[in-house]
Structure formats: C-alpha cells, structure tokens
Write a structure and sequence with these properties.
single chain, mainly beta, Porin, eight-stranded antiparallel barrel
C-alpha cells in the first residue's frame, strides 16, 4: 500500500508541476479578499483504486485561514487505517508481508497546522494531530483503544491554478509520532523493530480559497 501511495503521489506531483510551471511565477501574496480555504490531500483518490488487498480508507478535510501574507493556520480532520508499522523505511522491508500487523489500526483525529511562507510560494509547515486509535484483529474484531500524537514537518510549494481560487501544494515531509499508548503486545513487537519517524514522504494537497 505504501509504495502504491508514493507512486501515485509522485506521478500527480510531476504532472501538475509540468502543467503549471510556466504559469506560476511565484508570489506568496494571497489577496485578503480570499483569506480562508478548504483543502484535502489527493491521496484520497487512492481509495478508488480497485482490487486493493488493504485499502487505506483515507479521508482528510482542512479548514484554513491566512493570518498575514506569510502566516497560515489550519484545522485538520483526518482518518485512515494501516496494516504495518509506519516507521518502516524505504528498502527491502518496505511493504514486506512479514512485517504486517496481526490485524490493522484505524485512527481518527482533529489537529492543527501552522504554515510559514519563506520566499515567494515556498513554505514550511508543522502539523500535530492527536489521534484515537482502534486496534483491530485479522477478523475485523476490535482489540482495544489507544492514542497517538502524529506530527508532520513539511516543505513545499504553493501553486495557483485557474486564477487565484484553486491551488495545489506539492511537498516533502518528515513524520514522527512521539506519543502512543495502550498498544497490543503483538503490534508493539513489530513497532519496536523500527523508528518512530518516517523521512521523505511525498505529499500533494489541493484546495479552494474563498
């Protein structure tokens, strides 16, 4: 699932970057007649890929506001599920069935993000989402609940589309999860083999300003 996600995301980043590179000459100034926006991740399209063994059931909705021409805050609602430790790096163990949980984890959360434009439309951002975790076994039976704090540090570029209302933001991120609680032993044994962070995760968000 992870490698398919990355391939889809990288393909979309490449296509959109090529299509709009001529038009986007870059300024981070979003007119304050359009101070607010809603956005999501194009990874939601992966839910529609047929014949998946472990579909991610990923959904995300953000509401944001420009405080200044360089400072943006967001509220982010997200849910997803996954079947293997998040800290497995790129390499031979990435997507290895032997690393899969004896079940999966479903998470729900609402968090916050802060985005700072550094130069023209180049930005960095920091996000923190407290997540309720539901641990499920291989027969879709609930094992127990837990908690995780999921954080993302991101660098990206804001690309305006169709004037200044629509936008996309290709990016690269480092994710990390400093807190997790009440992990079943079988899940924890697999988690403990890997880091509590993941580097170089591509992203592609899209949104509408109003």
């Amino acid at each position: 699932m992870k490698i398919s996600k990355i391939l889809v995301t990288l393909s979309l980043i490449l296509i959109i970057s090529l299509a709009y590179s001529q038009e986007n000459e870059g300024t981070n100034k979003t007119e304050f007649t359009r101070k607010h926006f809603i956005s999501s991740s194009l990874f939601i399209l992966y839910n529609a890929v047929p014949d998946q063994t472990n579909p991610p059931d990923f959904f995300q909705l953000n509401f944001g506001c420009w405080l200044t021409e360089k400072d943006v805050v967001t509220i982010e609602a997200i849910t997803w599920k996954y079947h293997e430790p998040l800290g497995i790096p790129y390499g031979p163990s990435f997507e290895d069935p032997d690393e899969a949980y004896p079940g999966y984890i479903r998470e729900f959360g609402i968090g916050f993000g802060y985005q700072r434009f550094l130069w023209k439309d180049l930005y960095v951002s920091q996000h923190a989402i407290p997540l309720m975790r539901i641990y499920m076994d291989e027969d879709d039976n609930k094992i127990q609940n837990g908690f995780q704090l999921f954080c993302t540090s991101r660098v990206g570029y804001h690309v305006k589309l169709f004037g200044d209302n629509w936008f996309v933001e290709p990016s690269m991120a480092a994710t990390f999860w400093p807190i997790k609680t009440n992990v079943p032993k079988a899940f924890e044994e697999l988690d403990d083999k890997w880091n509590s962070y993941f580097l170089f995760e591509p992203g592609l968000h899209f949104g509408y300003k109003f």
